[in-house]
Amino acid sequence: MSAFVEHKFDKGFILDETTLRKLNEIISKRFLNIADHPKLIYHIYRDDSYSYVTESLEDIINEHNDAWRKITKLSLENYKMDEFTFEFIFSSEGAKLEITGKDRDEIYLLFSDLREYVNNEIAVRPKFFTKSPTYLGPSLLILGMIGMVSESIYSLNKISDYKDPAIDKLLKSTDVNEKLNYLLYHKTSISSISGIYVWLLILLIICLISFTGIIEKICSFMLPTNYFAIGKMKEKYDSQKIRFNNVFWIVVVGLIVSIIAGIIVWKLTK
């Protein structure tokens, strides 16, 4: 009885020379135990609408993989056989593996070895990073709405203070100092109302950024996924990793430290 396995990896992949060579080693070793010893081949698809098939891993390693000739899809296959088919596809949609053959034990051993290695070393980008452009815009919008609602509630509470009978009494008073205090209070309330308009402006900016695709470009630039880190793209990927680490430590960690320091100062001066 034939065996068939199909698996789509949930996480995004980063494929480089080291992981490609290890994949080649795992597959070639398992192919030796399969009847008729199938031979591994590589089908490469590039952004310049060129594609080719090769048996040599070095042809992929030596690809320029620059901006206009970058690899968009890589399929690891075997020469077509009646009793065994193997296809491992890496593309912008992620990684997908399909194996069909008569030797069930060898099929499942090959599948298990590949799944374990890919999950641990290649498919390393969590779902959030593969879907971050989709999640990030609405998340920022929700945070902005929460901020605006909070500001509105605070401002309305301030405005409701005007209905206090004590203020009517103050208006009838001839004491100039008391009226000056009232004006200062009124100015503070107006400034709190203006905070609502600030949040409305922030929401508008978030909406514009979400619809223009800027968030998607920033995410793909800072945290590339489903990425072939070979040739020129390897150099680009390394520089992006350094840039992301710098941003994380300077901006994110710096912001956290600043918030903690602000809280400490506020507690001490309270």
The strands making up the biggest β-sheet line up spatially as 1-7-6-5-3-4
Low-confidence stretches: 188-192
Provide the gyration radius in Å. Answer: 30 Å
- What would the principal axes of the Cα set say about the shape? elongated
| Helix proportion range | 55-70%
- The percentage of residues in β strands lies in 15-25%
Q: Residue-averaged pLDDT, rounded?
A: 76
Strand elements, count: 9
Question: Which structural class fits the helix and strand makeup?
Answer: alpha+beta
What's the end-to-end separation, in Å? Answer: 77 Å
What are the key terms here?
270 residues; 6-stranded antiparallel beta sheet; elongated
Report on the structure:
The chain has 270 residues and is an alpha+beta fold. It has 2 domains: 3-125, no CATH class; 130-223. It contains 9 helices and 9 strands. It has helices at 17-31, 57-61, 104-122, 127-130, 132-160, 165-172, 176-212, 214-222, 232-269, and strands spanning 3-8, 12-16, 40-46, 51-54, 71-78, 84-91, 94-101, 123-125, 227-229. The strands form 2 sheets. It has a 6-stranded antiparallel sheet with strand order 1-7-6-5-3-4. The longest helix has 38 residues, at 232-269.
